[in-house]
């Protein structure tokens, strides 16, 4: 029987934020530069409001400036594009994040394309996605960046390991695969059309689940001793009418099979926000030629 160890993303993220805060303090003291992050939220999705609040609080805690822009759900696309243009031109703003998903009447591709790539701290702009793909310095999507940081910390060198990423979104799956490839993993990207998904997963030394389906990955899909990174954040109803968070992996079933696994909550989620601050610091340095 394998002893399955949880990966404490919450503690790792807290530590990372503390190190970022030191570097921010240093930047303020030596250069008089305070990194600024603008977060734009359109509409009143309760889950998004929680994330935006958490992001703002942690931004301030790190010693950065936080600019929150809350727009009504019926905001016209042109007005959102005008706000993005103002933020692009504002020297106090080093990073811009437009919370997704956007309401249906707004073309999110168009909005993401309007963000200045140097301020694109989500790493969603095609210029950053392209730079990552060809191996140039890029702002890298926060969630995959956080996943790979946790993997390197716990496994050391990832070279030659077989990684299976379930999910191919531009936000998580695809950039996660790019980063794992950069670490010299042998990478498979699985998705809704994959034949024999359990069999593909069973090959993985590193299994990244980014699907958005509660507990879809079962215990017997996991190779004994594998490292499991559960990106899923799914709210499911409890008996008492409230909701609880579960990942894309059946966490209970993974016990005794996986070697290491990220819990939900307390795994990848907190790393996403810490990496957002890391990207904001990186963007600030580059914009100031540092
Ligand atoms: N922890 C964090 O910080 C973050 C967590 N998330 C969470 O991660 C999850 C994924 O997010 P995101 O990538 O944006 O989601 P998307 O819905 O954009 O992508 C889901 C992917 O999963 C694939 N998929 C769906 N159903 C199946 C299936 N039955 N078998 C195999 N593959 C399937 C889809 O395949 P296809 O392309 O073929 O349709 C798609 O590629 C969500 O739970 C989200 O809440 C997201 C961002 C940050
Ligand atoms: N432009 C954009 N960039 C994003 O990065 C982005 C986005 N839009 N839209 C929504 C998703 C989701 N996301 C999360 C961030 C933090 C947690 C997080 O902190 N989770 C904690 C607690 C969650 C809770 O308790 O609700 C945890 O997993 O432990 C989760 C999910 C960022 N996203």
TrEMBL record:
Tetrahydrofolate dehydrogenase/cyclohydrolase catalytic domain sequence ranges: 7-122
Keywords: Amino-acid biosynthesis, Histidine biosynthesis, Hydrolase, Methionine biosynthesis, Multifunctional enzyme, NADP, One-carbon metabolism, Oxidoreductase, Purine biosynthesis
Pathway, per record: One-carbon metabolism; tetrahydrofolate interconversion
Annotated binding of NADP(+), by residue: 167-169, 233
Domain Tetrahydrofolate dehydrogenase/cyclohydrolase NAD(P)-binding: 141-287
EC number: 1.5.1.5, 3.5.4.9
CDD domains linked to this entry: NAD_bind_m-THF_DH_Cyclohyd
A Pfam family matched in the record: THF_DHG_CYH_C
InterPro entries: Aminoacid_DH-like_N_sf, NAD(P)-bd_dom_sf, THF_DH/CycHdrlase, THF_DH/CycHdrlase_cat_dom, THF_DH/CycHdrlase_CS, THF_DH/CycHdrlase_NAD-bd_dom
GO molecular function annotations of the record: methenyltetrahydrofolate cyclohydrolase activity; methylenetetrahydrofolate dehydrogenase (NADP+) activity
Reaction it catalyzes: (6R)-5,10-methenyltetrahydrofolate + H2O = (6R)-10-formyltetrahydrofolate + H(+); (6R)-5,10-methylene-5,6,7,8-tetrahydrofolate + NADP(+) = (6R)-5,10-methenyltetrahydrofolate + NADPH
UniProt keyword Transmembrane helix, yes or no: no
Quaternary structure annotation from Swiss-Prot or TrEMBL: Homodimer.
Free-text function comment from the UniProt entry: Catalyzes the oxidation of 5,10-methylenetetrahydrofolate to 5,10-methenyltetrahydrofolate and then the hydrolysis of 5,10-methenyltetrahydrofolate to 10-formyltetrahydrofolate.
Protein family (similarity comment): Belongs to the tetrahydrofolate dehydrogenase/cyclohydrolase family.
Name this protein carries in UniProt: Bifunctional protein FolD
Organism: Xanthobacter agilis
Record gene name: folD
